[in-house]
Amino acid sequence: MPRWMDNPAGRLGAFLESLHSRNGDKTVGEVLGLAEDADEPFAVALRVLEIGRLARATRSSVEALPDEEDPAFLLQHFHQVEALVKRLTDDVVMAAATYAPTDLFAAKFIVPVPLDGAALFGLEAASRALHRCCPEPAIGPEHLDSLIHDVRELIDSVTGSPALSADAKTFLVRRLRDIETALLGSRITGSVDLEDALDCLTGAFVRREDIREPGLLGKINTFFQRLVLAAQGAESIAGATTSTVGAIEAIARFQGGQ
């Protein structure tokens, strides 16, 4: 299935594919796009509930397609996908509620996905139709890993900076963690959380002088410029990121002139 992450059917298909191909080299958290320090099994249970919302968003988005896309045909076998997601959700939530050991909990993600070819074809066709008719802002999966790595390096720079107070470090790490979480979760939830996280960081640099450490500003500016390039074709992300770059550059110039 083409990995179109700009619509819920594409993100759902990518998740099911990763679930199906999971092996000993991938943790449950990696499959679900969770932070490395996420608390299992509860963080996993919450993310799987988001998969349920993603399935509902897929159905409602396809139903809203124009008649010429034949929504009824696209959804003909979608009940199989919904049944799989419900079974997975029920199993995982039950495991979390009963404090199942992590190894038993992880086993829920090893069982092959029981979907027939018609259901998979319908999901792929739905993804194609949504990609064509109403794509959402998205960052391609080919950019996500490097951007997540960049954010983690920024967090290390913040925690190791002698110029920042403990309070400033805590605040910046929280904002950067929000961006990391949004990037990780974008494989499932899309770009809405990322846009919010970018807005929060932009506002933080405007409001708080104590976090404007010059060396850090340069590193963050470089990261956001890379994010702009990765977001080409995703106007709302690129626009928000370009605004952030402009704000950071303006702040840096202002400080340099003082």
Write a brief structural summary.
By secondary structure, the protein is mainly α. The chain has helices at 8-20, 28-32, 42-63, 71-74, 78-97, 102-107, 117-133, 141-159, 166-189, 192-207, 214-230, 235-257.
Number of domains: 2
**How much is the radius of gyration in Å?**
20 Å
Q: Name the structural class.
A: mainly alpha
- Helical content stands at over 70%
Q: Secondary-structure element sequence?
A: HHHHHHHHHHHH
Number of strands: 0
The number of helical segments is 12
Shape descriptor: elongated
Describe this structure in words.
With 258 residues, the chain is mostly helical. The protein has two domains: 8-133; 141-257, no CATH class. Helix content is 72%, strand content 0%. The chain has helices at residues 8-20, 28-32, 42-63, 71-74, 78-97, 102-107, 117-133, 141-159, 166-189, 192-207, 214-230, 235-257. The longest helix has 24 residues, at 166-189. The radius of gyration is 20 Å and the shape is elongated. The model has no long low-confidence stretch (mean pLDDT 78).
